[in-house]
């Protein structure tokens, strides 16, 4: 991947995103749409998976057909909203290993603090796809990527549904080697750190909490 931030402007993605943004969309519908979009975004983020060939026989004749070379994958969900994207990506790549990163924001320092970290072994050999629907300030995303790099990850991509320009900038400065794939980059962050126009709190809408 070369572009730092790729916007997947496919009509199906954009249509589903509009339904997700609508405040009238129910929790079950929101969850289903996130899974469907995740599948389409996963297609884009894995576009450069290495291909080899395999000798096979079709009913008509033998051929050397394209086949994944078997690069190992790790999907890392940034808790908790990351789990909504994770489900969709796993539908496309069911054999991927899965890890979880949990961070909360310290009310005094405003810095992200780790509360959970469990990732597959041999991260250095894997294509690592970190998933979190909302790239807002970028602080927790950048911290999560720091943790993955410390654990050995070298080939990391960041998959989100919506990004704010502030978050994209923060990630580009902190991790220029980590490409971002998203469905849209919105206008700005508001004073509470919400993406505008955005879709509200992705975790709350996904899990039906408030
Ligand atoms: N996290 C969310 O869930 N929504 C935002 O708008 C920003 C961060």
TrEMBL record:
Allosterically activated by GTP. Coiled coil: none annotated. Uracil binds at residues 195, 200-202. Pathway: Pyrimidine metabolism; UMP biosynthesis via salvage pathway; UMP from uracil: step 1/1. InterPro entries: PRTase-like, PRTase_dom, Upp_B, UPRT, UPRTase/APRTase. The keyword Glycosyltransferase applies. GO terms for biological process: UMP salvage; uracil salvage. Belongs to the UPRTase family. This is Uracil phosphoribosyltransferase.
């Amino acid at each position: 991947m070369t572009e730092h931030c790729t916007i997947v402007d496919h009509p199906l993605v954009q249509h589903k995103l509009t339904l997700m943004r609508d405040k009238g969309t129910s929790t079950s519908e929101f969850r289903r749409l996130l899974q469907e979009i995740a599948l389409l975004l996963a297609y884009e983020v894995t576009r450069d998976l290495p291909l080899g060939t395999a000798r096979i026989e079709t009913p008509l004749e033998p051929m050397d057909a394209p086949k994944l070379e078997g690069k190992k994958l790790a999907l890392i969900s940034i808790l908790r909203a990351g789990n909504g994207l994770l489900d969709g990506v796993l539908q496309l790549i069911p054999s991927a290993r899965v890890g979880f990163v949990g961070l909360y924001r310290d009310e005094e320092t405003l810095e992200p603090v780790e509360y959970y970290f469990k990732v597959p072994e041999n991260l250095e050999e894997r294509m690592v796809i970190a998933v979190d629907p909302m790239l807002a300030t970028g602080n927790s995303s950048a911290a999560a990527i720091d943790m993955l790099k410390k654990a050995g990850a070298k080939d990391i991509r960041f998959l989100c549904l919506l990004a704010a320009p502030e978050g994209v900038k923060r990630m580009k400065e902190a991790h220029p080697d980590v490409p971002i794939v998203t469905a849209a980059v919105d206008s700005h962050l508001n004073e509470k750190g919400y993406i505008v126009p955005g879709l509200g709190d992705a975790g709350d809408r996904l899990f039906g909490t408030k």
